[in-house]
Amino acid sequence: MKIFSYSFYARHTTIVARELLGALLIRSHNGVLHGGIITETEAYTNDEPACHAFKGQTERNGALFGAVGHAYVYFIYGKHFCLNAVAHDKAQHAAGGVLIRALHPVIGIEHMLQKRGVKGLKKLISGPGTLAQALSIDRSHNGIDLTTGQELYIAQGVTVPDADVKITPRIGLSQAKDLLRRYVVAKIPDLPESL
DNA sequence: GCTTTGATGCACT
DNA sequence: GTGCATCAAAGCG
Questions:
Q1: Which of A75, A84, A115, A139 could form a disulfide linkage to A97, CB 3.0–4.6 angstroms apart?
Q2: In angstroms, how far is B7 C1' from A82 CA?
């Protein structure tokens, strides 16, 4: 298990969003591991209006301006939490992050099904809000370090070839809709034996 | 204080 | 594909 270190996140946000596809997002909760392969990400940088950090630093988005390799978790639409990995090249952006939108469930599937209250894998982790619910992620995880291998971390998983990556506009935005910054795995690679 | 609106999910067509 | 519930944060006064 190779956990990504700060240098992985200290690159342009769009590069990190692409490289996170196929990686393992792991949550350790009550001594039980949950997680899976990252299949969908979106890149946000503070130079475009769709990014929470566009208008400058506030109490809510402060984590986006902090050290890379940390988590940015926010509450949205009165119901949902969304998880981002803070990632940007400081030479180019003051702030930026990668929204992790979906996983292919691998570890602790039974626990995640129970927490979500659904039966099929299809709806288990189908969007950012359901991802947070399946992994028991909430505001208390805002700003935590993703490189320590403790509560929440991201590790090297499988390699996704460029031919299996779809790049599309981001979802649910009212601004900068046309920017191609969403990265989706079209075909889930076979899992290596080591998992 | 008060108003607007949102990086969504789900039910429904 | 469309409609809408729901509330915290941000911006304004």
A1: A84
A2: 8
